[in-house]
Records
---
Amino acid sequence: RRMFPAMRVKISGLDPHQQYYIAMDIVPVDNKRYRYVYHSSKWMVAGNADSPVPPRVYIHPDSPASGETWMRQVISFDKLKLTNNELDDQGHIILHSMHKYQPRVHVIRKDCGDDLSPIKPIPSGEGVKAFSFPETVFTTVTAYQNQQITRLKIDRNPFAKGFRD
Amino acid sequence: RRMFPAMRVKISGLDPHQQYYIAMDIVPVDNKRYRYVYHSSKWMVAGNADSPVPPRVYIHPDSPASGETWMRQVISFDKLKLTNNELDDQGHIILHSMHKYQPRVHVIRKDCGDDLSPIKPIPSGEGVKAFSFPETVFTTVTAYQNQQITRLKIDRNPFAKGFRD
DNA sequence: CCCTTTTCACCTAGGTGGTAAGAT
DNA sequence: ATCTTACCACCTAGGTGAAAAGGG
């Protein structure tokens, strides 16, 4: 399924005439598994993380594009899809349920993106920069644990209009 | 509206590692306006063509891509849209109704596509090749003139399923 | 008279949380 | 007891020709 709300970023400081890929990956925040304690409304550690899943990368569909093009628009990751199926063959990003994750935005100069692939880790080095925003850390679930989250999803997601009062 | 059936082409002979744009434009077949004579089931000349419309180009949304990528797939133009509105600002291809047209497929080496634009004629010269297929000539209408065409559209277009018996 | 525009019911395609059943 | 899966009604978004209304 899609991630909602989606990450949206603005970028500045690119070379307008240089081509870039923009990509997102999602990395574990820690080595823990969590459970939600309803009476305290808190996520609590519930053991160590499950074993790692195959690495996946969401390459923004406008890639590659010039620095000028990227800087002119808000870059939205709303079509990125998540799954908990480790055997997924749709190129979705694979995550464990009940774990904490941090999405990262990557800006990759075109000449450094030759071995960019949805199923390989993002290369690092010169011409590749990563950005992450702590306020975007989230915990994965298969069912919502908390009515405020459910409310937010229903109120804000146009596709959930059928559940609004 | 979309063109249906859509043009679909296969390409061979590209340099696998060279980047290309693929584009389509649609040019008048002659300088005539037509009307359909029902009793003879034929299109007849009905005067000279209306004055030219602003030139538009459909740049295939997978552009630019490598020769390898283009040659691996059937290239479909099903998202190309036509309009008879000369003031169109959606980037659709503008045509006169009741005229005959020939779609053309253009293969443009990336370094020759710098001034490629949806609202400018396709550049010509080295690194740009055009292909047209006489069997794809068509006559534009605002309402179908002929029950065999209506039948073909309803039978073959998934979106017209509601009109099938 | 002939052609065009507008609106509509009916589709395709796919993104929602709810819910009941399944799994561990 | 807790988490997951499969299916569903209900949406968004948009592509069909029919039919009625509009226009020169």
---
Amino acid sequence: DTTNTLDALSQEGLSEEPVQQEKEAGGSGSGAGGGQTWETVGKKQGRKKKGRASKILTSIEDEDESEGAEEDENGSGGSERQREHPFIVTEPGEVARGKKNGLDYLFHLYEQCREFLIQVQNIAKERGEKCPTKVTNQVFRYAKKAGASYINKPKMRHYVHCYALHCLDEDASNALRRAFKERGENVGAWRQACYKPLVAIAARQGWDIDAIFNAHPRLSIWYVPTKLRQLCHAERSNAAAASISVTGGGAAQLPF
Amino acid sequence: DTTNTLDALSQEGLSEEPVQQEKEAGGSGSGAGGGQTWETVGKKQGRKKKGRASKILTSIEDEDESEGAEEDENGSGGSERQREHPFIVTEPGEVARGKKNGLDYLFHLYEQCREFLIQVQNIAKERGEKCPTKVTNQVFRYAKKAGASYINKPKMRHYVHCYALHCLDEDASNALRRAFKERGENVGAWRQACYKPLVAIAARQGWDIDAIFNAHPRLSIWYVPTKLRQLCHAERSNAAAASISVTGGGAAQLPF
DNA sequence: AGAAGGACCAGTGGTCCGTA
DNA sequence: AGAAGGACCAGTGGTCCGTA
């Protein structure tokens, strides 16, 4: 069972108690959320409205009523709601120390999302409903309900292309991780650096990044990130222009 | 060239003048809208706000400014904006008489949408943008801009399953049309009757209506209609229940 | 400064219902 | 009554930016 091993890669310290939240009825699929899941220490963060103008005021519908007069629901003392620890660049197999999470853990989150998607698909099939082929809002909602509160859309979308490199060329991905760790680069720099080898892969395969994603069983469930798509397009145009300037500009460039 | 033949199946009388509207730039695909397209006689229908409460008031953004002080833009006399003629049940090859449209014309609209989709896809590929695989809102918008004002989403969605039967079992579809024409049934009755043979086809192919749509090159670009999906699901449950009551209820029913 | 994620927003899929 | 389609609406994909 790799689940506990990998979960252990997430540096805890936010909460000590494994929490098994309500599962959506009918979940018959493979075991995402089947292992232990942890929840960050929770306390009502007050009704403090965020700064942004809220035109649509997303209403009260799902608030669990028990407003101000509420104890500390998980009994662990009045700590504030916290975020996941930030990622640091780790080598393959390396566990992050301190209040950090490593990249194996990051990639594990993508596998978990895949398992949640499979569960959502199974439920949809049983019910004869539309069956998602990608990790959609519905899947993120399901993951949250299943207790995986550490999974969220902005985070997963942010690192998709890093996961893509890991899927498509694990050796190159590992080498990049080692190089960036050695140089002491931060996660943002590593993340940026993941684009280049992906564009090179696309170049070798006719520039069709969608086809590349779709051909890979674990990657096909993720939307191609906009920036990756744009980089591939820009590079293809560059390559085509260079090719024309070399050949003197023949016909039949840019085959579709 | 079948385009003009089929276009002729649409009973005109709304407008005499072929109108070639602005094409979206870069449209390099096959020839939807390449033949003649007609526009219904147009006249500003005034700003009369519709009855429904309009929370979002879709604003002025694209109105072509020239408000009240406007001539009759297509010079054909002040007639009112009209709708397409209603469909009637026709046999294969039969042209509808009077202010009616026949079913060959209906199915031709689906082929036109497919051609518009191909154009949208070609543009997207050229630009390195996301490429739709289905007839989306974007495609309907494109069709309208290309002058095919007679194509709209509610209509196309309404008859998708009729087109599906035409694609999947043309003989059955033709037989149904002849039978319903002979009985003098209206379009609504024919449309309802198209569900049953489709469910029978699904039954023969393991109940996976999505797979059936996706396996057909001209049908795969259309979303499976909700009602058809529900009917297939309900019938599968019925069939499974019957099978259990016959077999006495074994294991391994409802294979997914 | 670097990073996590709540919340927003433009445009979608789906179809109702006022219209002809 | 039967039918065509403008317009609506809940929930989506995408990501900004106030937060820690």
